[in-house]
């Protein structure tokens, strides 16, 4: 193994951060019918992020964003807005993924193909390079010839990747690579040497082919927080029970079982055509000193906040009403991408 491979690693989300990237919804995106509902959610997300670190916003119309933020109060210095054209708002999946070689971070710019060519992504694919050109970052941006979304992988910062077969091995991403070849690519890019593959678990209404950040999350102290479903009549019951058994069989690098924190299951939410929307409490965002947790005006919101709190003792647990976000089949983690310490100017 090369020396640089030993040093390279993919930081855990709970490690120190400089900021979080957000892309603002606009009338030329799929959010157009829901702007009145969803923009206040983005205002709240940015407000909560800016309490703890810098919020980086990519937006076609910065003046509108400033006006929306100012309506909630003074726009803090920890909010930076860049005029950039976007297709959509899913920063988790087109935002840069940061690796560390020794102490020096590098931003990796993976290809984003709209979750397997389902949606237009030409503008979103340019956002990272546009931010680099506007001097938002203080470190190099390296373009990688691989399709990979940030929501499809979880890292513990110590060489372990948690992911799903349904997404990473899907023929609509990197069909030229076998599982073994993909693991070798990710080892070279991230320094990861352990891969935990989930073969079960899904959310109805999810466009991402089962991104792991909607199902199960790596947490500090060898903990995995994951969605549960106790309703035998729910269509998800058997798949999520099978996923729970998979997680119980996983072992840490030291050969021990993971500590498991089950997250409650919100009541079904449906769109105007009666289709299930992918509400999940696993889609939380970790920031410096806090965890922002999506809520859905649901009876289980409080229990979800409490469960996440057990996985992150000592951090402030902040609920953010994300009910409008699931109208476009994503939630809080999906619309954000953390930028680890040392990445921003």
Walk me through the structure:
There is one protein chain. The protein is α/β, with parallel strands linked by helices. The chain has a single domain (3-340), classed as 5-stranded Propeller (L-arginine/glycine Amidinotransferase, Chain A), CATH 3.75.10.10. It contains 10 helices and 17 strands. It has helices at 3-7, 35-50, 62-70, 91-94, 114-117, 127-133, 165-168, 179-190, 237-249, 301-311; strands spanning 8-9, 17-23, 54-59, 79-83, 97-101, 104-111, 141-147, 153-155, 160-164, 194-198, 216-219, 223-227, 259-263, 285-287, 290-295, 316-321, 337-340. The strands form 5 sheets. A 4-stranded mixed beta sheet has the order 1-5-6-7. The protein has a 4-stranded mixed beta sheet with strand order 4-3-2-17. The protein has a 3-stranded mixed beta sheet with strand order 8-9-10. Strand 15, helix 10 and strand 16 (316-321) form a beta-alpha-beta unit. It comes from Geomesophilobacter sediminis. One of its GO terms (biological process) is putrescine biosynthetic process. This is Agmatine deiminase family protein.
In short, what is this structure?
With 345 residues, the chain is α/β, with parallel strands linked by helices. It has ten helices and 17 strands. It has a single domain, classed as L-arginine/glycine Amidinotransferase, Chain A.
């Amino acid at each position: 193994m090369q020396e640089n491979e030993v040093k390279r690693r993919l930081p855990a989300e709970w490690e120190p951060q400089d900021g979080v990237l957000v892309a603002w919804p606009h009338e030329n995106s799929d959010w157009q019918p829901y702007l009145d509902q969803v923009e206040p959610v983005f205002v709240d997300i940015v407000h909560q992020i800016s309490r703890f670190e810098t919020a980086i916003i990519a937006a076609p119309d910065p003046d509108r964003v400033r006006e929306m933020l100012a309506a909630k109060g003074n726009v803090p210095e920890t909010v930076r807005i860049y005029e950039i054209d976007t297709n959509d708002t899913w920063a988790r999946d087109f935002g840069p993924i940061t690796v560390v070689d020794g102490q020096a971070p590098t931003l990796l710019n993976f290809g984003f193909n709209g979750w397997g060519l389902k949606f237009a992504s030409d503008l979103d694919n340019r956002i990272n390079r546009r931010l680099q050109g506007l001097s938002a970052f203080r470190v190099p941006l390296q373009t990688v010839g691989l399709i990979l979304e940030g929501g499809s992988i979880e890292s513990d910062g110590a060489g372990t990747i948690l992911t799903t077969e349904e997404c990473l091995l899907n023929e609509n991403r990197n069909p030229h690579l076998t599982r073994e070849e993909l693991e070798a690519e990710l080892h070279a890019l991230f320094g990861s040497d352990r891969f935990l593959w989930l073969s079960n678990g899904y959310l109805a209404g999810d466009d991402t082919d089962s991104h792991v950040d909607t199902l199960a999350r790596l947490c500090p102290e060898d903990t995995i927080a994951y969605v549960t479903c106790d309703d035998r009549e729910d269509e998800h019951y058997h798949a999520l029970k099978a996923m729970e058994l998979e997680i119980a069989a996983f072992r840490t690098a030291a050969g021990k079982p993971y500590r498991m924190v089950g997250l409650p299951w919100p009541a079904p939410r449906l769109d105007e055509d009666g289709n299930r929307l992918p509400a999940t409490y696993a889609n939380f965002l970790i920031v410096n000193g806090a965890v922002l947790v999506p809520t859905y005006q649901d009876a289980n919101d409080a229990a979800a906040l409490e469960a996440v709190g057990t996985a992150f003792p000592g951090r402030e647990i902040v609920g953010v009403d994300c009910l409008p976000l699931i109208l476009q089949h994503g939630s809080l983690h999906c619309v954000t991408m953390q930028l680890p310490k040392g990445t921003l100017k």
